[in-house]
Specification:
The chain has 20 helices and seven strands. 60% of the residues lie in helices and 8% in strands. A seven-stranded antiparallel β-sheet has the order 3-4-7-1-2-5-6, covered by helices on one side. Strand 5 and strand 6 form a beta hairpin. It folds into three domains: 234 residues, no CATH class; 136 residues, no CATH class; 69 residues. By secondary structure, the chain is of the alpha+beta class.
């Protein structure tokens, strides 16, 4: 704890002295208050997941730190192995020399999601990062949490600097929305992937706008843009795909002063994403739509719980209640055989989009046991997505609604989901307030269309691939600032200050 306090003081000093953190609107006192609130959020996250949670459930944070500790073990006696693991200079094969002593002991390391090139399993990147932080942390959780605080703060401040010029007179309110939105504040305070994503997103947006909108082609901006692009490709490439193309359209509309902005966005994004999907399918043989179908069906199966097995040909699922419906043939490698007459479902590994249901199993093949999952308490009942345009068209509106409005009190199953419900209510109130006190002057249509495009694309993708409310709350965190900027663009602060309570708040 003392080590974390010393690092915290160093960070405060850097914020106080570095030119990057100087702003004509936000005082250093304001920034220090934000940092203090984020520090409290780090403590709240630790308390909730490491102290309060029943059965000591530590979630992804515990798994990440445990994996980082295993990698760090190599530092003292095998520094070359440590560097290879941190930098990713190894193969994913079981025959790799690093697999047995290290990777086989790291939870979920082998589940690299090879069937889903567009939704990479990014646990490895986070684990590698914290294995590096472990060199300076002494194993203290507080130091790892502080690293997340620093990264998310830098990213959020860069996000604020990227868009502050579009909100004259509302800069402080913009900063409050970016830094202190409940979900963003909570999920950026744990040893998770979200702080890394927020850091990359904020810096990427700031560097891109400086280069392509402001015309400041400095080497530091170019390097920052390239670095963020490369890390995004291994951390969360779908965030990059959802933000980059609308960002390009935003820059073009700004550069060429497009008049029919909404039409320009619609046609441009339809052409960009449509041609990208077709090129990936017919040139690179990567079917994005099939990947989405498979992921949605997998999420439904996982949300309903079950027991999962795999062999060379099939990926198989039993109901969670059927734990007595298989026998272990090889207890060392955990090779199993499903009992006759057991109902099950499976997917042919060559045709993953086809789910096959079997009511009376008579297959005697052997399967390797993968995992057993309890049914998710926050699962959203939805139909399975099919590989057809009609199925996508039918489910997309529901998907968007689920991400925008759920959970909402009546379907919240945990304290975290109750907080998410409250946040949804606050957003609704904020939207109504901004509509009531909207500006008479025309809003910046280019920025409005940009934010709408990012929100629509991201919320539809998250909603159609994710059927668990708890997962939705986390996945939408990087996109919440874009959502909140939409009503803020409409708000007339001076008109709102005519109400005494709002004047005090603003």
């Amino acid at each position: 704890m003392i080590l974390a306090a010393l690092y915290f003081l160093v960070f405060i000093l850097l914020v106080w002295r570095l030119p990057f953190f100087r702003d004509t609107v936000l005082s250093r006192r304001f920034l220090l208050c934000v940092i203090a609130v984020k520090a409290l959020a780090c403590w709240a996250y630790y308390w909730f997941y490491f102290i309060y949670s029943p059965n000591g459930v530590r979630g992804d944070s515990g798994d990440t730190l445990a994996g980082a500790e295993i990698i760090y073990e190599a530092f003292h006696g095998h520094k070359a192995d440590y560097l290879k693991m941190v930098l990713g200079w190894h193969s994913d094969l079981v025959s790799d020399p690093l697999y047995k002593p290290y990777f086989s002991r790291i939870f979920d390391w082998g589940n690299s999601d090879s069937m889903s090139e567009f939704f990479l399993n990014d646990n490895r990147t986070s684990t590698r990062f914290h294995a590096f932080v472990r060199l300076f942390s002494g194993g203290a959780y507080a130091v790892h949490a502080l690293a997340m605080l620093v990264l998310s703060f830098i990213g959020q401040f860069a996000f604020y600097k990227a868009f502050k010029r579009y909100f004259p007179g509302r800069e402080k309110l913009l900063a409050v929305l970016i830094f202190l939105s409940p979900s963003v504040l909570f999920w950026s305070s744990g040893v998770l992937k979200e702080p890394l994503a927020l850091a990359l997103l904020g810096i990427f947006l700031y560097a891109f706008l400086q280069i392509f909108v402001q015309g400041r082609k400095r080497i530091v901006y170019i390097l920052a843009l390239l670095l963020c692009f490369l890390v995004f490709m291994v951390l969360k490439p779908y965030i990059l795909a959802l933000v980059l193309f609308p960002l390009i359209v935003f820059a073009l509309a700004s550069r060429f002063r497009i008049r029919r902005v909404a039409l320009f966005y619609g046609i441009s994004l339809l052409l960009i994403y449509g041609s990208s999907v077709l090129a990936l399918k017919y040139i690179f043989h990567k079917d994005v739509l099939n990947t989405i179908v498979v992921r949605q069906n997998d999420f439904i199966s996982l949300s309903r719980g079950g027991i999962f097995f795999v062999n060379k040909h099939n990926y198989l699922r039993l109901e969670y209640r059927d734990a007595d419906k298989y026998t272990v043939v090889d207890s060392v490698n955990y090779i199993c055989r499903i009992l006759p007459h057991t109902p099950l479902m499976y997917w042919d590994l060559d045709h993953l989009r086809d789910t096959i249901f079997v009511a009376d199993n008579r297959d005697t093949s052997l399967y390797k046991f993968l995992t057993i999952n309890k049914p998710a308490g926050s699962g959203i009942v939805t139909e399975r997505l099919e590989y057809s345009l009609s199925s996508f068209a039918r489910l997309l509106p529901v998907a968007f609604f689920n991400v925008l409005c759920r959970p909402f009190f009546f379907d919240a199953h945990s304290a975290a989901e109750m907080m998410a419900s409250l946040e949804n209510l606050l957003f609704l109130a904020f939207l109504i307030g901004c509509m009531l006190f909207r500006k008479k002057k025309p809003v910046d249509l280019n920025l409005l269309c940009f934010c709408l495009a990012v929100v629509l694309l991201s919320y539809c993708l998250i909603g159609i691939t994710t059927t668990v409310a708890g997962a939705i709350v986390r996945y939408k965190v990087p996109f919440i600032p874009f959502l909140l900027m939409i009503p803020l663009l409409l708000l007339d602060v001076e008109k709102a200050k005519s109400i005494p309570v709002l004047k005090w708040l603003l």
